[in-house]
Structure formats: structure tokens, C-alpha cells
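Re: the request from the purification team.
They wanted to know what the chain is likely to look like in 3D before they choose a buffer screen. I agreed to run a prediction and write the result into the notebook, where they can find it.
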Amino acid sequence: AIAVNISDIAAMGGTPYLALISLAFPSSTSTKFIDKLYSGFQTICDSNKIELVGGDTVASPKHLFINVCIVGEAFKDRVFYRTGAKPGDQIFVTGNLGDSAMGLKILREKIKKSGSIKHKNTLVKKHLEPIPRVKESSLLARSKLKITSMIDISDGLTQDLGHLCSKGNLGANLYEDSLPVSEALNNICTQKRHDPINWTLQGGEDYELLFTIKSEDVKKLKRLFLKANTFISHIGEITNSPKKIILTRANGSKIFLKPAMGFNHFK
């Protein structure tokens, strides 16, 4: 709950510093659960140097509610928005994609027969304990690189890339060979006979940074991230073809991706 809100601050080049949490508990909630919940809140706040300053706690007739508000700050000339990308800008993403969605599938279906325990645990952890990319965002914000747009991937790569393209009436070319697929995702997909590329394109809740940058800054960007523990992938390019996101497969064939691919909260 806290991590995904921190990610929203990071997605704009900001640094979070304050958290407010409002909770509603049904009467059946145990004190032990509440203690563990607050312990988790405090742990992630401490690891991101955030002050947990208050909020509200009330009773709920039936359901548990957790409402989080994170306040952050950014350099006024280095706030990154979803708008701003131009044709020719290069598309980058941090980390691996699709792991969280597969982790959720493992939890829901209780997959036991296929894949290694190590890989399944890696994927489940990615879903249950997302890591907001605050350090990586700060690295970009403090640099002089021309970051033209940015978003965190919560609803899937294709859908969130569509958000970066929609306001400017733009499109994008993606390259299958460049999409970051983890060893863990590959392992489970091989066992289950799934295409891991579909998971990287549609899987949500990865909370990796998806951003665009001017072509002339690509080499500088790669040098900058040699200093970071997180790897980045150069996955494509912004085009002037409105609403057309095209994936070039490893065999050279091209397919059109629907921007609505991914998670829809209101379906």
C-alpha cells in the first residue's frame, strides 16, 4: 500500500518525505494483525526516509480499508510528466517486466507442479513486495539528461506506454529482443507453455519506471546507470503514427498492440 504510492512520486522525479495513513477495521480484526500492519508501514517508510506523521483510524462494518497519501517534493524544472514525448525519442524501462503478474497468478492458482521453488518465490515476492524506483528516479532528476516523459508501470507496459503516447497523438515501436524478461519468468513460462513476451507487455504492478529520452542522450544515460544497481533496457522508439504501438518480433514480423492491453480497474 505504501510502496505503490511512493512509486507515483518517483514517477514524476520526486522524493517522498511524508505519509498519512487512514485505516478502517472491522471488529473481527486482531490486535496482532494491526501491529504487523503498522510494523510493515514503518519498515518501508524508514527504508525510504519517510515520516509517518498521522492519519485516522476508524471502525468498519465489514471490510478493511487502507488509504495512503504520500507527499513528496521535486526540483521545479525537473518534474517529469506523462506528456512531452516527441517522435524519435527513445523508450527505456528499469528492471524486469511481467514478474509481478506471474507472481499473482502463482498465488491465485497455487501453482505447485511446474517451475522451480526459487523462481516461484522470486515472482511472488515481486508481487507482494514491490520496490519503488526512488533512487533511479532521483538519479535521472539530478542529471542533465533530456527526459521527455515518464510513468511507472502499474497497468502493464502496453497500456502505460499508451498513456505517454495519447496526449501527443503519438505511437511507438517496440522490439521483442529488447524487452526485459527475468530468468524466473522464463522458467515458469517454459513449464506452463506461456509466451513470456505477453506477460512483459500486459502484466501489471511491476512499478518499474517507463520513460522517454532524446536520442542524443542515450549513451550518457547508459553511462549514468552503470553507477546504479538497477539495469535499464532500451526497448523502442516514439513515432508519429497516432495510437499505433507496433511490436517487432524476434523473427522480424510486426504486430499491432492494442493500447488497452493490460489491467482495467473498472471491467
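For the purification team: The chain has nine helices and ten strands.
Please add any questions underneath this entry.
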